[in-house]
UniProtKB/TrEMBL annotation:
GO terms for molecular function: glucarate dehydratase activity. Residues 151-245 form the Mandelate racemase/muconate lactonizing enzyme C-terminal domain. This is glucarate dehydratase. It holds the Pfam family MR_MLE_N. It is an enzyme of class 4 (lyase). InterPro entries: DgoD-like, Enolase-like_C_sf, Enolase-like_N, Enolase_C-like, Mandelate_racemase_C, Mandelate_racemase_N_dom. It catalyses: D-glucarate = 5-dehydro-4-deoxy-D-glucarate + H2O. It comes from Thermasporomyces composti. Pathway: Carbohydrate acid metabolism; D-glucarate degradation; 2,5-dioxopentanoate from D-glucarate: step 1/2. Its EC number is 4.2.1.40. SMART domains: MR_MLE.
Amino acid sequence: MKITDIRATTVAVPLQAPLLHSNGAHWGRFVRTIVEIETDNGLVGLGELGGGGESAEAAIVALKRYLVGHDPRQLNALPFMIANPTASLYNNRTQLLAAIEFACLDLVGQDLGVSVSELLGGRLRDRVPFASYLFFRYADPRTGEGEIRDPDQLVAEALRLKRQYGFRVHKLKGGVFPPDYELECYRALAAATDGDLLRYDPNAALSVSEALRFGKAIQDLPNDYYEDPTWGLNGLRQLRGLGLPLATNTVVINPEQLAANVLNPAVDVILLDTTFWGGIRACVKAAAVCETFQLGVAVHSSGELGIQLATMLHLGAVLPNLDHAADAHYHHLVDDIIVGGPFEYVDGAIAVPEGPGLGVRLDYEKVARYAEYYREVGGYPYDRDPGRPGWYPLIPNDRWADPTAPQPDTLTW
């Protein structure tokens, strides 16, 4: 089996409402680049990566000269072929590597008639549990609905998601409004969710002292973990006296950083992202290290459509030490580009796909529809907030949004 062609298509899939985060916003849509790798036996493997738009398409297509003629079963060669650790100092291809690995695993699974989780040693669970992922949101400018900017709106959304999908763990993406205001929201969430586990993630926006103060104020709550409250391994180490489990998806995302955290612990829970780590197999290797040193693991979300969600599900299926529910932005999407439509949550979990490879196929009508939508609306600056023209964040931040500010002009979307 040899690779004969690589194709890339960028799509924009609408969200229920624009999502706010400490660095800016998802401006009402996710922009994702779909990768297709074709082989000489007629199979097509699927991959996915986020952001980039035309630049991501061009970067993927540029890998043809590296990959045409390569046997996709030779997975161990991929990191050195396209993301050599020294060459990548000049051209960081980690996310490209991940998308290519997804597609190659999909091809190998299809060729052998087995799922990716079987290729990885066999699934230990058939369903992967998920946390709700709660964001502060602007109203959808098309409908005027979906706003979440105060405690009552946040609680109402959390309870709706719990009723609809069965979530028993709730994660609040913070770092948007002043810390005391977000503390009020988080405590309201705790009071309303009947002892469910909670996560707070301000995307490292807080100073060490502010993170300490916030952490002390939530010590009495049923916290699953305190995620990236401040920046850097050393900053996080200064919070270990709080007695709260600390988690990260920002400063432990490669083997060297994981080794540093083992030698001098800063975080307790490593959030494994199949894109950030450069593929599913890299996450499996990292999870084995975490198992050895008794670190917790969870599966992280980086704004996926169905292809990457399938990679997350296969990863979650094979990890013996998966001791926390996964994250997913997925329920904020209004649609997906896979055959059969979006995956379904049942009792807060999603079933691992059963088919060969990743177990998902493209719905080409929807790919065409959302590729055209991308051409109409384009990308957006992830690290800017449409409601605050000229704003950009500091780390640590002190430029907080005003929760009472008017809805942004729809023309800016």
